[in-house]
Specification:
The protein is an alpha/beta fold. The chain folds into two domains: 2-271, 4-Layer Sandwich (Purple Acid Phosphatase, chain A, domain 2); 278-463, 5'-Nucleotidase, C-terminal domain (5'-nucleotidase,  domain 2, Alpha-Beta Complex). The chain contains 15 helices and 25 strands. Helix 1 (20-36) packs antiparallel against helix 9 and helix 10 (296-309) packs across helix 15 (451-463). The longest helix is centred in the first third of the chain and has 17 residues, at 20-36. Residues 10-205 form the Calcineurin-like phosphoesterase domain.
């Protein structure tokens, strides 16, 4: 006898709730379809469902996301870095307390003695015919961030070494929910046997038809709920083996919305507006914002960053502020709308020659006009880099390109051999945007504060002048 089993999943929704009612409507339709055919169907999420760029997630610190997953009937989820490192320790510790689904993440643990009641390395989904599906979860090991928040996060390979054999012994089918990214997923598929399917996320990659590597099927559905994923499997009870597995990711562009979900989101939007309507400051004059110019508010924010981190100098791209401030009351909601990024302050150590190269790169047209997606940035373009603690002299060539002529620190040219502490956005410690910063061996992150917390302090200081 053969049993058809269906897994449906989301990954990296990032609180893009505009797509959620379509997803829920689709899940309800699929569940009705499989129920009529007496086929098991399970719902999974691969993390980064929460993103504090959205007012609902900002105001309710992810609890509304969990409620939405409950209403949709999810069976199991892992957590992504947006759940893991953009919430305080206390907020993450209790994030899934009301979850009606299992939460699996094998490489995360609390540094204290008490463990979250919801956190498991793996769990099991069991069909009516008794087929056991073992689900293990892994999240991206941002050790520096997690450590500052009171969590330990370990190498995913170390935890697979620890758990995979015992999970395999207890399961007919093994599924990995991987919020690690495509490179690690492929490495795991090549290195380990016994994982039937890896459902991936984190790097927002898309496998429309799945990808086989060795004996493992890889699948992922992009980001923001534009696509959803399906895994179709066939288990042979006589042969006691998985005889077929396929994966698809498909868009829901013309899908109808679930009316109840849309109504609940409308209610959450109203609640979030009420929570974020708290007045933070009252401005005596409007504050202009321009992505390609140094304005008063971005200059003051960069100065706050320097003083708050006790750095030699600081730098921020003007694109972190999305809109101007009006004269009069400024609420938490206004600050969130203008600076929505889940970006933390950080401080790195650079030599004078490295710092000069960073400043040169930041003045290029390519850098300023870059439409960055990811690394915590939720704006349109990076914009002009603004500095505090150094004087940067530039000139333009005949084509209008800007070049750095000289950089001075405390009135003297940069010493190429001296080291300087530089405060900036943690965005630049990832990837290849500014390699000198990302490759620095001395990085210190400030958590759980976000840039908008420093912006609030800046606005309060300006209102007193």
């Amino acid at each position: 006898m053969q049993e058809k089993i269906y897994l449906y999943y989301t990954n990296d929704l990032h609180s893009h709730f505009e797509n959620w009612p379509k997803i829920v409507h689709h899940w309800k339709h699929q569940r009705n379809y499989h129920d009529q055919k007496n086929e098991p169907m399970f719902l999974l999420d691969v993390g980064d469902h929460v993103d504090r760029f959205h007012p609902i997630s900002e105001a309710m610190r992810g609890s509304a996301n969990i409620d939405l997953l409950n209403d949709a009937g999810y069976d199991c989820a892992t957590l992504g870095n947006n759940e893991g490192i953009t919430l305080s320790h206390e907020e993450l510790f209790h994030l899934y307390d009301e979850a009606n689904f299992d939460v699996v993440c094998a490489n995360l643990e609390n540094t204290g003695k008490e463990k979250p009641s919801w956190l498991k390395p793996y769990s099991f989904l069991i069909t009516e015919q008794g087929t056991r599906i073992g689900i293990i979860g892994l999240t991206a090991p941002f050790k520096a961030f997690y450590g500052l928040l009171g969590w330990n996060v370990y190498s995913p390979f170390q935890l697979l070494d620890d758990y995979l054999d015992e999970l395999r012994e207890q399961s007919d089918i093994v599924i990995l929910l991987s919020h690690l990214g495509i490179n690690d997923d492929q490495e795991i598929a090549n290195r380990y046997s016994g994982i039937d399917v890896i459902i991936g996320g984190h790097t927002h990659h898309l496998f429309r038809d799945g990808e086989m590597m060795e004996d493992t099927l890889l699948t992922a559905a992009g980001k923001h709920g534009v696509y959803v994923g399906q895994v179709a499997m066939q288990w042979d009870h006589e042969q006691n083996e998985l005889v077929q597995k396929e994966a698809y990711a498909y868009p829901l562009g013309t899908q109808e919305e679930d009316i109840e979900t849309r109504q609940k989101l409308d209610q959450y939007n109203d609640q979030a507006a009420d929570i974020l309507n708290h007045e933070v400051v009252r401005l005596r004059e409007p504050l202009d914002v321009h992505w390609f110019q140094e304005t008063k508010i971005i200059k003051e924010l960069v100065h706050t960053l320097k003083e708050w981190t006790d750095a030699d100098l600081s730098m921020l791209n003007a694109g972190v502020l999305l809109e101007p401030f009006s004269e009069g009351p400024v609420t938490r909601g206004d600050i969130h709308k203008i600076c929505p990024h889940p970006i933390n302050p950080c401080k790195v150590t650079l030599t004078g020659s490295e710092l000069l190269e960073v400043i040169r790169q930041a003045h290029t047209k390519r850098f300023m006009e870059l439409k960055l997606k990811g690394f915590g940035f939720r704006g349109e373009v990076l914009g002009r880099m603004v500095f505090s603690g150094v004087e940067v002299e530039t000139e333009k060539d005949q084509e209008g390109n800007e070049h750095v002529r000289e950089v001075r620190f405390q009135g003297e040219p940069l010493d190429h051999n001296r080291t300087y502490t530089v405060a900036t956005a943690d965005t630049f410690t990832f990837g290849r945007l500014l390699p000198e910063i990302s490759h620095s061996s001395d990085k210190h992150y400030f958590m759980p504060e976000l840039l908008r917390d420093l912006l609030s302090s800046t606005l309060q200081r300006l209102s007193l002048k």
